[in-house]
Write a structure and sequence with these properties.
Protein name: Histone deacetylase 5-like
Bound molecules: N-{4-[(3-aminopropyl)amino]butyl}acetamide, zinc ion
Shape: elongated
Keywords: Chromatin regulator, Repressor
Number of strands: 20
Cofactor: Zn(2+)
Pfam families: Hist_deacetyl
InterPro entries: HDACs, His_deacetylse_dom, His_deacetylse_dom_sf, Ureohydrolase_dom_sf
Length: about 650
C-alpha cells in the first residue's frame, strides 16, 4: 500500500508501542452527497451560499488524496422524530412539504418572510440530508466505529431556531445530532457534549436549543460588534451564559471588530476554551465548522488561515479521546473553504504535526473581550479566575485601518454588493506615527466617556469620527481620529438636561436643526445619551471634527488640565473652539470612575436660543431619521418612543 511519507513514518514510529502498524491510522468518516447541491436560489440569482461550496471541498479532498484514506459514507435522510427533538412539529412540517407542487407558488413568499433564506423545490430534500448525515456521522463516532469525521453538508444549520429557518439555515443539523445522542441513544453513553461553533456568525439557534441544558456546553466565537453583525441583537453577547441548570454552559466570545485572525482565535482557545473544555471533560465534540472567518471570505472579514483552523482543531483533539464530528456551516470563498477543510481533515487523520506558535499577536480588542468573558464566566469555571498577566496582554498588534466599514449588517442581502464593497476596501497597516506628538501619547493613556446626543448616537456615524469614512446621509467624509481603535465600551444613560435643535443649515447634514444639549441641568428634563468610552486623545479629535477643525495639530484642544477643570467646574470653553457651535465641554459626572463629557453650545449661546435671538429649528427629516436610528439601534428605544422623544424636543419651547 502506497502511503504518504509522513504518515508511513508515523506508523513506523508507533510500532514500538502496542499498536500494530496500519491500525494506528485514525478512522475518519466523510459524508458527501451531490444531492445537497440541488438546494439553490429559485431563479438562478447569485447567492453566497451556493451549491458549489460543498463540491469544491469534496474535490479538494479527493485531489489531495485525503478522501481515499477516509471512510466515505453516503448521506442519510433525517427522521422527523429526531428533527422534532429540537424543532417544532410545525417547522418540520413546513420544511418537509416545501417541495410539493402546491407549495410552488408559496415558496418564495415563505422565504421572503424569513431572514436571509431562499428556497427551491430541492431545499426540503437537502435539508433532510444535511441533518440526517450529521446524525449518522455522530452516531458512528459515538459508537466508536469511527474516530472522527466531517459532514460536508448544506444548507448549514446553526442559525436555525426551534420554530424558524434563518441565515441560510433550515434545520439545525448539529443541534439535531446532539439531541439525538443525548435523548435517543442512552446506550452510547454520551452524557456530555461540547459544541464548538467557529463560524464567523453567532450560532443563535444552537444556543437557544440548549440554553437550559447542562449536558451541552455551547462555545461560540463570532463577530458581534455590539449586536450589529448577523445575527442581529444581543444573543451573541458574552453575558448570555445560559439559564437554570444550563447557567454557565453557554459561552460566547463576541469579537468587537473584524479582521481577527489566527492569533486572536488561538488566544480565545488558550485562555477560555481549552481550560473550560478541560473542566467540562466532554464525551464527544460536535463542531459547527463554518469557514467564513477564513481569510478571503466575502462575508466574514476575518483572517483565519488553514494553519489557524488546523491549530484550533488540534487543540480540540485533546478532549473526548479525539471524538470530533465536524459539520460544515458557512464559508463563502471557495478557495478558502477548500483549503481550510483539507487542513482540518489532515488533522483528523493525524497527518502532520501542528506548531503551536503563531507569528502575530492578538488585537487589543481581543484581549479586552477575552478578559470580559473570563470575568463573566469564572464563577462557573474556576480555571478562568486568574487575571491574565500584564506581560501577556501587552503582546498585541495594532488594528489595521479600514476606510469603509465592511460589516455584514447592511439591510440588503446582495453578495455581489458585498464583494464590490470588499474590493473597494483600502486596508493599510496602521503604523505607529513617528510624528505623533507627545500630547497624543499622554492623552491616549486617559479614558473618558464621550456622551453623544445627536447623530453620533448612531454608532456607524460616530465611527466615522474615529475610523474615518462617510455613512449614509453624511454629506462630507470624515478623516477620523489618529488613533482608530473603536470605543472600548458603549453604554446608554439619561441625564437631566434638555435636548433642543437650532441652526438653519449644516455642511454635514444639509438643511435643518443641529442638536444641542442645554449646558445647564434641569430636573424637569431628560436627555438620552450614548456614551462611548474612548481615550482623551480621541476625544480631542472628535471635538475638533465636530467644530470643523483639522485633527492634524501640534496641541490638544482639551488637555489634562482642562479635564480637571471641567470635572471641578462642570463646564469649560476650550479656546480653540470657543466661537464654534460645540464650543463648550460639559462634565456630566462619572461612570466607573471615568468622567462623562459631552460637547454642546456655551451657556451664552443657549441663552440666545432661549431669547429667540438665535432661531430654533426642528431637524430635517433625514437628520431626524439618523437620530431615531441611533436611539433604536442602541436597543434602548422602540421606533415610536424615539420618534416621540425627538418630536417633543423639537417642538417644545426652550
Ligand atoms: N441582511 C451562515 O454563515 N447575512 N449564515 C445577512 C443582512 C446573513 C450567514 C445580511 C448571513 C448568514 C451559516
Ligand atoms: Zn456564518
Amino acid at each position: 500500500m502506497a502511503m504518504a511519507g509522513e504518515s508511513s513514518r508515523k506508523n513506523y514510529d508507533k510500532m514500538d508501542g502496542d499498536e500494530v502498524a496500519g491500525k494506528s491510522q485514525r478512522k475518519v468518516g466523510l459524508v458527501y452527497d451531490d444531492t445537497m447541491c440541488k438546494h439553490d436560489t429559485p431563479d438562478g440569482e447569485d447567492h453566497p451560499e451556493f451549491p458549489n461550496r460543498i463540491r469544491v471541498i469534496w474535490e479538494m479532498l479527493q485531489l489531495a488524496g485525503v478522501s481515499q484514506r477516509c471512510v466515505v459514507l453516503g448521506s442519510n435522510k433525517a427522521d422527523d422524530k429526531h428533527l422534532q427533538l429540537v424543532h417544532t412539529k410545525d417547522h418540520v412540517n413546513l420544511v418537509r412539504t416545501l417541495s410539493t407542487k402546491q407549495k410552488d407558488y408559496q415558496r418564495n413568499k415563505i422565504a421572503l418572510e424569513l431572514s436571509s433564506i431562499y428556497l427551491n423545490g430541492s431545499s426540503s430534500e437537502a435539508a433532510y440530508l444535511a441533518a440526517g448525515s450529521v446524525v449518522k456521522l455522530a452516531e458512528k463516532v459515538a459508537q466508536g466505529e469511527l474516530d472522527s469525521g466531517f459532514a460536508i453538508v448544506r444548507p448549514p444549520g446553526h442559525h436555525a431556531e426551534t420554530d424558524e429557518a434563518m441565515g441560510f439555515c433550515l434545520f439545525n443539523n448539529v443541534a439535531v445530532a446532539a439531541s439525538y445522542l443525548l435523548n435517543e441513544r442512552p446506550d452510547l453513553g454520551v452524557n456530555k457534549i461540547l459544541i464548538v461553533d467557529w463560524d464567523v456568525h453567532h450560532g443563535n439557534g444552537t444556543q437557544k436549543m440548549f440554553w437550559k441544558d447542562p449536558r451541552v456546553l455551547f462555545f461560540s466565537v463570532h463577530r458581534h460588534e455590539y449586536g450589529s453583525f448577523y445575527a442581529p441583537g444581543d444573543d451573541g453577547d458574552y453575558n448570555m451564559v445560559g439559564e437554570g441548570p444550563g447557567e454557565g454552559f453557554n459561552i460566547n466570545v463576541p469579537w468587537d471588530q473584524g479582521q481577527c485572525g489566527d492569533a486572536d482565535y488561538l488566544a480565545a482557545w488558550d485562555h477560555i476554551f481549552v481550560p473550560v473544555a478541560r473542566e467540562f471533560n466532554p464525551d464527544i465534540i460536535l463542531l459547527s465548522a463554518g469557514f467564513d472567518a477564513a481569510i478571503g471570505d466575502p462575508l466574514g472579514g476575518c483572517r483565519v488561515t488553514p494553519y489557524g483552523y488546523s491549530a484550533m482543531l488540534k487543540k480540540l483533539m485533546e478532549f473526548a479521546d479525539g471524538k470530533i464530528v465536524m459539520a460544515l456551516e458557512g464559508g463563502y470563498n471557495l478557495d478558502s473553504i477548500a483549503k481550510s477543510s483539507l487542513a482540518c481533515v489532515q488533522v483528523l487523520l493525524e497527518d502532520k504535526e501542528i506548531q503551536a506558535s503563531s507569528e502575530t499577536y492578538p488585537f487589543e480588542s481581543t484581549w479586552r473581550v477575552i478578559q470580559a468573558v473570563r470575568k463573566r464566566l469564572c464563577a462557573y469555571w474556576p480555571s478562568l479566575a486568574d487575571e491574565l498577566s500584564w506581560k501577556l496582554i501587552n503582546q498585541k498588534r495594532p488594528t489595521p485601518i479600514i476606510l469603509i466599514s465592511n460589516s455584514d449588517s447592511e439591510t440588503e442581502d446582495d453578495a455581489q454588493g458585498l464583494l464590490d464593497q470588499m474590493s473597494k476596501l483600502s486596508i493599510e497597516n496602521h503604523q505607529v506615527d513617528t510624528a505623533r506628538t507627545s500630547w497624543r501619547a499622554d492623552l491616549a493613556k486617559v479614558d473618558v466617556w464621550y456622551a453623544s446626543f445627536g447623530s453620533n448616537m448612531w454608532k456607524p456615524r460616530f465611527l466615522c469620527y474615529i475610523q474615518g469614512g462617510q455613512v449614509d446621509g453624511l454629506k462630507r467624509a470624515c478623516v477620523g481620529s489618529i488613533d482608530k481603535s473603536p470605543p472600548k465600551e458603549i453604554v446608554w444613560k439619561t441625564f437631566a438636561h434638555r435636548l433642543f435643535f437650532g441652526r438653519e443649515h449644516t455642511a454635514r447634514w444639509g438643511a435643518g436643526g443641529v442638536a444641542f444639549a442645554n449646558p445647564l441641568a434641569n430636573p424637569n428634563n431628560e436627555i438620552h445619551m450614548c456614551l462611548y468610552r474612548i481615550t482623551l486623545e480621541q476625544f480631542n479629535d472628535v471635538l475638533r471634527q465636530e467644530n470643523a477643525l483639522s485633527v492634524d495639530t501640534d496641541f490638544p484642544v482639551f488637555d489634562l488640565a482642562a479635564l480637571q477643570l471641567t470635572e471641578n467646574k462642570g463646564a469649560v470653553i476650550p479656546e480653540a473652539v470657543s466661537d464654534s457651535w460645540y464650543g463648550s465641554v460639559v462634565c456630566l459626572g462619572k461612570e466607573c470612575d471615568i468622567p462623562i463629557l459631552t460637547m454642546t453650545c456655551t451657556h451664552s449661546v443657549s441663552e440666545k436660543f432661549k431669547s429667540g435671538e438665535f432661531p430654533l429649528r426642528p431637524p430635517a427629516k433625514a437628520y431626524a431619521y439618523t437620530l431615531i436610528r441611533g436611539l433604536v439601534e442602541g436597543g434602548r428605544f422602540s421606533e415610536e418612543e424615539a420618534e416621540a422623544y425627538i418630536g417633543e424636543a423639537a417642538s417644545k419651547p426652550l
